[in-house]
Design goal:
Layout lengths: L1 E5 L3 H13 L4 E5 L3 H11 L2 E3 L11 E6 L6 H10 L3 E4 L8 H11 L3 E3 L7 H13 L3 E8 L23 H17 L2 E9 L11 E8 L4 E7 L6 E8 L3 E4 L6 E5 L4 E4 L21 H14 L9 H15 L1
Helix pairs in contact: 1-7, 3-4, 5-6, 6-8
């Protein structure tokens, strides 16, 4: 099997690394317009790299493409890959440019068009989903996600990658990561109130923090605070109702449930210690397991074994919600 990974930055390298774990017989080809990134990946992973799809000589032998470039470029690259007859795995898009056309093209050619939504594959999210569904009572949640924007990619200035662009800004990326699982668990958002402004010295063309009040179809209400200002990388979630209390600090070890009978908060183990894969240099809340599970799900979708838990169709609804929040 030959697979092309387009975009050889931090996410592209993550996908290459995890593809090797998934099946070390896969032949991986890398594409990036940066000759420096090409050289680094050739050296690190011993793969062939090119500057563009047109330069690949063995295009007909490739079965799938992983698109790991900046979001605004995705729709054109997706179309190009579908035209080549390749199944497509896309990272977050943040905008819905080309969705209708690419969905139609994928259907016409009988190809898989798979969209990443990594948190839906986190074991902690699966546990929270199960608990909420089993309790079936109204409740509230408080959720804060924040990290200082210059710390996202410490090797480059924030204005030099997509979070510096108002259309694909850092706060919008946080929304795109978190809203899919919040909506999946608590249901469609039927009412929303937003407060936003800027409170940092960062040179940004967009608000650097949001307080969002959400009312879900299930009856749950949530307060979602997000920012690119917090000097400590934080992900703190608290859910409370008459029959359920859960808290999570975003780490694999940080999920807890309050047991009413014993009046004690108990740690919930959702990972075996030897299964937690973490890369040096990333926030303690970032682990590799869910990224790997997405890759498994992609190939299961291609083979018809499973239906994806997220899709471009669902993402259209999330993007519409993000647009409403940013209005």
């Amino acid at each position: 099997m030959k697979i092309v990974v387009i975009g050889l930055g931090s996410m592209g390298k993550r996908r290459i690394r995890l593809l090797r774990q998934f099946d070390n017989t896969i032949e991986i080809i890398g594409i990036d317009s940066s000759s420096e990134r090409q050289s680094l990946c050739t050296s690190e992973f011993q793969i062939h790299t090119y500057g563009a799809i047109e330069q690949i000589s063995e295009k007909s032998e490739i079965s799938s493409a992983f698109i790991c470039t900046s979001p605004l470029s995705h729709h054109l690259i997706i179309r190009q890959c579908l035209e080549q007859g390749w199944h497509v795995f896309s990272e977050l898009n943040l905008v819905d440019i080309g969705y209708t056309e690419n969905l139609a093209l994928a259907k016409e050619k009988g190809l898989t068009l798979f969209l990443s939504s990594t948190f839906l594959y986190r074991e902690e999210i699966k546990y929270i989903t199960k608990e909420v569904k089993e309790n079936q009572s109204k409740g509230n949640y408080l959720y804060h996600v924040g990290q200082y924007l210059p710390d996202w990619h410490p090797w480059e200035h924030y204005s030099n990658f997509f979070v510096g662009d108002k259309r694909t800004n850092g706060c919008r990326e946080i929304m795109a990561i978190e809203l899919p699982w919040l909506v999946e668990i608590f249901g469609k958002v039927i009412d929303i109130n937003v407060r936003k402004d800027s409170m940092s010295s960062l040179n940004l063309s967009y608000p650097d923090n949001y307080l969002i009040s959400l009312v879900h179809q299930s009856g749950y209400k949530g307060l979602f605070a997000l920012d690119v200002v917090s000097r400590k990388a934080v992900r703190n979630f608290e859910l409370f109702s008459e029959n359920l209390y859960l808290s999570w600090d975003g780490t694999p070890q940080g999920l807890s449930k309050y047991v009413f009978e014993t009046k004690r908060e108990e740690h919930i183990t959702v990972y075996n210690d030897n299964c937690i894969d973490k890369q040096k240099g990333y926030s303690r809340t970032i682990i590799e397991n869910a990224y790997y599970q997405e890759i498994v799900a992609f190939f299961e979708t291609i083979s018809g074994q499973e239906n994806p838990i997220y899709s471009f169709e669902k993402d259209l609804q999330i993007i519409a919600l993000m647009n409403m929040i940013e209005e």
